[in-house]
Amino acid sequence: MQNQRASTESFYEVFEVFSKKTDLAHFQHQFSLLAPNHEIAIVMAQENFLRRESAVDLWVVKRSDISMLQPAERASLQRLNNKDYRMTKGYGYLRKKWRHYEQQMLDEKEILSWGEKQRDK
């Protein structure tokens, strides 16, 4: 019995199904399924998914072909997440600098008053 179970488990592979509902949408994971090969997996995904919902594209990927980062590799992503320079909040100090600059600027009345002072002399 156990020998038969082991041969059945090695016969089927796990496939992950992703779908795209519109041309502008992103792919989303829908479900996993067991199938003996890619062709059968695609047919099963179409039968199980497209019967209930519409989609413009369907991806069926063998789970063993999907790679993921190991915990040590995930730690290296932390240094890549420092993207504060892309956020507009990093430029908030410019409003204060501009206000200070504007206060130091000469206005039209002040400049014209210089001419009146020179005429008075």
Fold topology:
Elements: H1 2-11, E1 13-20, E2 28-35, H2 38-50, E3 57-62, H3 71-75, H4 93-104, H5 108-120
Antiparallel strand pairs: 1-2, 1-3
Protein name: Ring-1,2-phenylacetyl-CoA epoxidase subunit PaaB
InterPro entries: PaaB, PaaB_sf
Pfam family, one: PaaB
Explain what the structure shows.
This protein has a single domain (2-66, 84-115), classed as Ubiquitin-like (UB roll) (Roll), CATH 3.10.20.520. It is 44% helix and 18% strand. It starts with a helix and ends with a helix. With 121 residues, the chain is of the alpha+beta class. The longest helix is centred in the middle third of the chain and has 13 residues, at 38-50. The protein has a three-stranded antiparallel beta sheet with strand order 2-1-3.
How many extended strands?
3
Strand order of the largest sheet: 2-1-3
- What are the secondary-structure elements, in order, as H or E? HEEHEHHH
Q: What share of residues is helical?
A: 40-55%
Q: Total helix count?
A: 5
Any idea of the CATH topology? Ubiquitin-like (UB roll)
Main beta-sheet strand count, sense and barrel state: 3 strands, antiparallel
CATH class: Alpha Beta
Q: What oligomeric arrangement do these chains adopt?
A: single chain
Strand content: 15-25%
Number of domains: 1
So what's the overall shape?
A: elongated
CATH architecture: Roll
How would you summarize this macromolecular structure in one to three sentences?
This protein has 121 residues and is an alpha+beta fold. It is 44% helix and 18% strand.
